[in-house]
């Protein structure tokens, strides 16, 4: 079981006093370096995990906000309309960026990012858009009570909604075409 850096520092300082009085290659100095590297590695991994989950968290937050005023489960047409609204949420900003750009100038990074996200989400909608199953009443009310945490999504049922209106059960967290 890895021990956190501050625990190693605390143990060494209790044992010998100041941690800066260590020899460069002593056992305690190596323990401190190992613990520091371990903390760096764990924090990098945690930030990468959060970054990978962020698009899905943003998606669920959009649906969470959209269903706050809804009391009945949604129909398939309502789901399709809601997904279309989600995909086109940044079209106004995209058109504004395109209009502000002078003729012959390359697009800005923000404009490229918005276009890329739009294309990715449209492609996902054709192959199966991952979302909560809002056609069931218990999932709808659970999403309304969602606390905003990734771990709180494990109790919800998810589905893949295709552009033609077909639905397929899916799993949490999203994996490929599950």
Strand order of the largest sheet: 1-2-3
Strand content: 5-15%
So, CATH architecture of the largest domain?
Answer: Up-down Bundle
Rg from C-alpha positions? 24 Å
- Domain count: the total is 2
With helices defined by DSSP (H or I, 4 residues minimum), what is the helix count? 6
Largest sheet: 3 strands, antiparallel
Could you give the distance between the termini? Answer: 34 Å
CATH topology of the largest domain: de novo design (two linked rop proteins)
CATH class descriptor of the largest domain: Mainly Alpha
Pfam families: Tma16
Organism: Penicillium chermesinum
Protein name: Translation machinery-associated protein 16
InterPro entries: Tma16 (IPR021346), Tma16_sf (IPR038356)
What does this structure look like?
- The protein has 178 residues and is mostly helical.
- It has two domains: 1-54; 67-178, Translation machinery-associated protein 16-like (de novo design (two linked rop proteins), Up-down Bundle), CATH 1.20.1440.170.
- It is 57% helix and 7% strand.
- The chain is built from six helices and three strands.
- The protein has helices spanning 5-16, 27-66, 76-87, 91-100, 109-127, 137-144, and strands at residues 129-132, 158-161, 167-170.
- It has a three-stranded antiparallel sheet with strand order 1-2-3.
- Strand 2 and strand 3 form a beta hairpin.
- Helix 1 (5-16) packs antiparallel against helix 2 (27-66) and helix 4 runs antiparallel to helix 5.
- It is extended, with a radius of gyration of 24 Å.
- The mean pLDDT is 87.
- Residues 1-41 are annotated as: Disordered.
- Belongs to the TMA16 family.
- Residues 7-16 have a biased composition (Basic residues).
- InterPro entries: Tma16 (IPR021346), Tma16_sf (IPR038356).
- It comes from Penicillium chermesinum.
């Amino acid at each position: 079981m890895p021990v956190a850096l501050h625990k190693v520092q605390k143990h060494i300082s209790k044992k010998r006093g100041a941690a800066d009085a260590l020899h460069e290659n002593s056992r305690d100095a190596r323990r401190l370096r190992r613990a520091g590297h371990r903390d760096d590695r764990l924090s990098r991994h945690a930030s990468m995990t959060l970054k990978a989950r962020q698009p899905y968290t943003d998606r669920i937050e959009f649906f969470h906000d959209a269903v706050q005023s809804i009391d009945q489960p949604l129909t398939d047409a309502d789901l399709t309309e809601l997904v279309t609204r989600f995909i086109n949420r940044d079209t106004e900003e995209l058109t504004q960026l395109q209009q502000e750009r002078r003729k012959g100038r390359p697009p800005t990074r923000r404009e490229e990012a918005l276009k890329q996200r739009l294309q990715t989400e449209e492609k996902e909608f054709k192959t199966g858009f991952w979302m909560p199953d809002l056609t069931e009443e218990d999932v709808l009310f659970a999403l309304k009570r969602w606390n905003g945490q990734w771990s709180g999504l494990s109790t919800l049922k998810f589905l893949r909604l295709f552009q033609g209106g077909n639905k397929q059960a899916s799993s949490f967290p999203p994996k490929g075409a599950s």
